[in-house]
Specification:
With 401 residues, the protein is an alpha/beta fold. The chain contains twelve helices and 17 strands. The protein has helices at 7-21, 41-53, 70-81, 99-105, 124-132, 187-200, 240-243, 271-282, 288-296, 300-326, 349-360, 386-398; strands at 28-29, 93-96, 116-120, 139-140, 145-146, 149-153, 171-175, 203-207, 233-238, 251-254, 260-262, 268-270, 331-333, 339-343, 362-363, 365-366, 377-381. A hairpin with a 4-residue loop joins strand 4 and strand 5. Helix 10 (300-326) packs parallel to helix 12. The protein binds D-malate. D-malate (MLT) binds next to loops.
């Protein structure tokens, strides 16, 4: 049984209740990672043009290809992979309406007794979708997690880097740059996970929705930069934070053909084919208009424009990091990711969430909502407007609204 509500729903509910009681409060939203900058001009232009295409019989589009238009998949292959020395085939790319949906849906391919391992703190979707499908067992208060889920704690003491699981795990979810801690994983460390998966036959689910926020050239953007990863890792990417598509919806998942799985009869099957079967059964694709807009973000000019927006958010991250440090807080992340992980002085993250809301009218996300190892932290996002980011830090440094 799922405990409580979905984290961001609960944060929104508390913020709405506070706003209703304090109608004059100017709330600054640094909770859910939702973008505030508009779509870039190259994307807007492509969207308009695509709308016009839909108005004429000769250029009208009905159902699109199940796994995405080639014009978008080719752009993805070129800019996200070939440019980093990674070769993939077009039929290994599946365009979708969101990385959240894909990371939530992929567990449908696994048997009900598959053992899942997650980092703790963790993006709640990985855990909650496995709970919904009956794979987790009950919540164990003493363990601070579900009975049948293996947790890989990421705390300040281990640099927020997960250790390999000691117990058997069939499926491991990894997210780098990490949501919520904002930390990254080096190639050497990622290689340990790839080697582990190849030796044990486990599958890695690698969520790299925030890869465009990496500034350190030594950090891997894709798990396929690690040798052998194509045999054991699925990668999830999103246009949401990269190109401001949280409301427009476009993402993609890479399932290499080299990953094999065993079906219930013991036959060896390609995971890619299972995913293709699921997608074509349950999904009718992302709209032509949206995919045209997404492809424009991969053009030379479009890419320059989206990277400028990313750089702008990362300037917010710097302002938050330094502002919080000046106010005496210990912070992590915010260098290769749009999330700042603040250590709560008294150690109670929901209490601190309430204090921030009532004392400063700022909405964060309590670390405990991401798992028991997140207790004692609070996450802030760099996606607010520049003006609000500066105002929020002024409030915190001043000690009042
Ligand atoms: C977050 O705040 O963690 C993300 O915005 C959630 C999401 O991408 O679904």
């Amino acid at each position: 049984m799922l405990r409580g509500g979905y984290l961001f729903y609960e944060v929104g509910r508390r913020a709405a209740a506070f706003a209703a009681e304090h109608p004059d409060a100017e709330l600054i939203r640094m909770g859910i990672g939702d973008v505030t900058r508009p779509l870039v001009p190259a994307v807007i232009e492509a969207l308009h043009k695509a709308v016009d295409d839909m108005s004429r019989a000769e250029t009208f589009h009905g159902y699109g290809p199940d796994f995405g238009y080639d014009f978008l998949r080719e752009a993805i292959l070129r800019r996200d992979y070939a440019a980093r020395g990674v070769s993939l085939d077009l039929d290994e790319i599946f365009v979708s309406d969101g990385a959240k949906c894909d990371v939530g849906n992929i567990q449908e391919l696994f048997s009900s007794d598959a053992v899942v391992a997650v980092m703790d703190p963790v993006y709640p979707v990985y855990v909650d979708t496995n709970v919904m499908s009956g794979r987790s067992g009950r919540f164990d208060e003493q363990k601070g997690g579900y009975e049948r889920i293996v947790y890989m704690p990421c705390r300040a003491e281990n640099g927020f880097v997960p250790e390999l699981p000691k117990e058997r795990a069939d499926v491991l979810y990894l997210c780098f740059p990490n949501n919520p801690t904002g930390m990254t994983l080096s190639k050497e460390h990622l290689k340990r996970f790839v080697d582990y998966a190849r030796q044990s036959g486990a599958l890695l689910l690698y969520d790299s929705a925030y890869e465009s926020y990496i500034s350190d050239p030594a950090m891997p953007h894709s798990i396929y930069e690690i040798e052998g990863a194509k045999e054991c890792a699925v990668e999830f990417r999103s246009m949401s934070k990269t190109a401001g598509f949280t409301g427009t919806r476009c993402a993609y998942t890479v399932v290499p053909k080299a990953i094999s799985a065993r079906d219930t009869l013991g036959n060896t099957v390609r995971l890619r084919d299972l995913w293709a079967r699921r997608v074509s059964t349950k999904f009718n694709g992302v709209s032509y208009i949206t995919q045209r807009g997404a492809a424009a973000a991969y053009s030379k000019i479009g890419n320059e424009q989206v990277l400028a927006v990313v750089a702008d958010y990362m300037e917010n991250a710097r302002i938050i990091r330094e502002g919080l440090q000046q106010a005496g807080y210990t912070v992590y992340g915010g260098v290769n990711a749009p999330y700042i992980w603040l250590k709560v002085p008294h150690g109670d993250s929901w209490k601190f969430f309430d204090e921030l809301l009532s004392g400063y009218h700022i909405i964060g996300t309590p670390g405990a909502g991401f798992g028991s190892a997140g207790e004692g932290y609070l996450r802030m996002t760099a996606f607010a407007t520049r003006e609000n980011t500066i105002r929020a830090m002024e409030r915190i440094k001043r000690g009042s609204v």
